[in-house]
Amino acid sequence: MKVMVVSAISRESSTCFVLARTVAELAAAHGVEVDFTHPVNAGLPINDGTIAWDDPRAKAWQQRIAAIHAHLWVSPEYHSGMTGGMKNLFDHLAKEPMRGDVVGLFALAGGAMAALNTLNGMSVVARSLGAWVAPEYCAINSEEVKAGLDDAARVRLERIVATVVDTARRLQPDADTDTPGIPF
Ligand SMILES: Cc1cc2nc3c(=O)[nH]c(=O)nc-3n(C[C@H](O)[C@H](O)[C@H](O)COP(=O)(O)O)c2cc1C
């Protein structure tokens, strides 16, 4: 099974990147192959309406996504939503490559609203792409990441990672053997 972990921020010192790395480590511990990415790594142009679906950069990204069974998205709250850099990754996809996949959501905020708008927005986008969204979200204050995650935070992260991997295995039982799963 292949799990993509997306950091909405490409800067390695960002709390988003650090949290995404932690999420990737938790996922790897479940015996899955992890594909870690972020906007710079994805190498996509901004989809401003002038980029063809079959642009080679977009096609390579669509093929990369098609090989994935589950996704773990990590974004800071930027004006109550995921970052534009992260949204752009999904604006190069039609429904096919993510249909039937499972998505787990993690968002960081500096403010008291704890990134709930961002999580809800990410959920709408994931569902629009035909994916199943894990029912439990993780909203976390970026100061918690800066201070070093405590055990309770790690348990919260692990619960979501475990749910996503387990659900993806049940929905796509052949994912671990790389043969076609349930046709959605
Ligand atoms: C453009 C921008 C918009 C932001 N909007 C919000 C916001 O709406 N709500 C909030 O709680 N924090 C907001 N923040 C704070 C970020 O969520 C916070 O800086 C981030 O989680 C920490 O990321 P870093 O470690 O990459 O600096 C915003 C930050 C930036 C740069």
In short:
This protein has helices at residues 15-28, 39-42, 56-66, 84-90, 116-128, 142-147, 151-171; strands at 2-7, 33-37, 70-76, 102-109, 132-133, 138-141. It is an alpha/beta fold and 184 residues long.
General description of the model:
- This protein has 184 residues and is α/β, with parallel strands linked by helices.
- The longest helix is centred in the C-terminal third of the chain and has 21 residues, at 151-171.
- The chain has helices at 15-28, 39-42, 56-66, 84-90, 116-128, 142-147, 151-171, and strands spanning 2-7, 33-37, 70-76, 102-109, 132-133, 138-141.
- α1 links the parallel β1 and β2.
- The protein has one domain: 3-Layer(aba) Sandwich (Rossmann fold), CATH 3.40.50.360.
- Strands 1, 2, 3, 4, 5 and 6 form a 6-stranded parallel beta sheet that branches.
- The two termini are 17 Å apart.
- The structure holds flavin mononucleotide.
The portion of residues forming beta strands comes to 15-25%
Please describe the biggest sheet, giving its number of strands, its sense, and whether it closes into a barrel: 6 strands, parallel
- Name given to the CATH architecture: 3-Layer(aba) Sandwich
**Which residues form runs of ≥5 with pLDDT under 50?**
179-184
List keywords for this structure.
41% helix, binds flavin mononucleotide, Rossmann fold, six-stranded parallel β-sheet, alpha/beta, disordered C terminus, 184 residues
